[in-house]
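Collaborator request log, item 7. Partner lab (contact: R.S.) asked for a structural prediction of Uracil-DNA glycosylase to inform their binding assays.
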Amino acid sequence: MLIQMNSSWHHQLTDEFEKPYFEKLTTFVEREYATHKCFPQSSQIFAAFNHCSFDNVKVVIIGQDPYHGLGQANGLCFSVNDGVAFPPSLVNIFKEIQTDLGLPIPISGNLERWADQGVLLLNATLTVRESEAGSHQNQGWETFTDAVIQKISESKEKVVFLLWGGFAKKKGAKINRAKHYVLETGHPSPLSANRGLWFGNKHFSKTNAFLKSIGSEEIQW
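Returned to partner:
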């Protein structure tokens, strides 16, 4: 597995790449991509890091698994490639932005535009087999992404962490809340949103209000 990652991240995570678990993970991913259809395409596995350098991280959104349908995943959580129909969670994210900020639903579900502004769109697991949700879980990715979150928490200040749903809340348990701004709500999936756990959270306006308060540029959602 070629670690195609922005140099600022490479510098921060060098120790992780040398640990035994990462070597096992690399072997696993290479074997999976050689023998099965997997997503995202190999050049996009670390796309979240390439669109948002370590120095530029202002906001972190934590997802679980890449989309496992053909042509959907592009290496950023909740994001899909241009021209791909919006999955239900993304539809609900855009609906909340529309209500919260009065912005129209965008034409594309490609969230690279967010990442390029400093939003790290981090899945807990960075790869998956086609049509097999969770198929690459418990192989080492979670250990790696825990290290990423910890590194941000320890080395940076005043980052906004958006934790959506139980899984993300658990993943963000070790964030230093004295140094960072942490917002929690339900998951944007229909199951959660239809139970009243997502809509009305105003995470997007709250994020921008906080960024403005610290003299940082707001995100154009």
